[in-house]
Design brief:
mainly alpha, about 75% helix
Amino acid sequence: MSISPEAQTAPQDDQVLLEVARLQKKIGNEGPALENIADRLHGILETTEQSCESILQSIEGVFEAANKVRAAAPDNGELSQAVDVLEQHATSVLESCAFQDLTSQRVSIIVRDLLHVEGCVEAVTDAVGREGVESLAAELAAQDGSGGESEEDPYLHGPQNEKEAFSQGDIDAVFG
């Protein structure tokens, strides 16, 4: 992202410096913070896609079983009606799975926008002075005692990213 000549020559604005430092403190200092958020959103997309695929496979199994039941007892009207109800419910579940595609599209747009905002924040950080922003962010973190940690509930970390997650073998080794 390029910075306009006016922004490059403008004097540092203490308010801009403070706000960028607050943003950096809020979202963390470990690498590109908004990219980290984007990675979390990609994780949501992957998990949702995997769950939806599992649902679709299970529903296919329901339809196959319904067809077998119908073929095994073609003259049983009561059983045929029950199979029809099962198929209607399975079809309803299939229709509900359309959320995954819509969710994926919407989250992809959010990721794109977050990465754009990150580029803008990086440009502003460079314009006002990266060292000043980083030292002010560290100072703000020291003042509130957070050490730069987010104020979110520590139990709200959710599922780990596969790259960072412990394997089942690691967990088993702990309980050995």
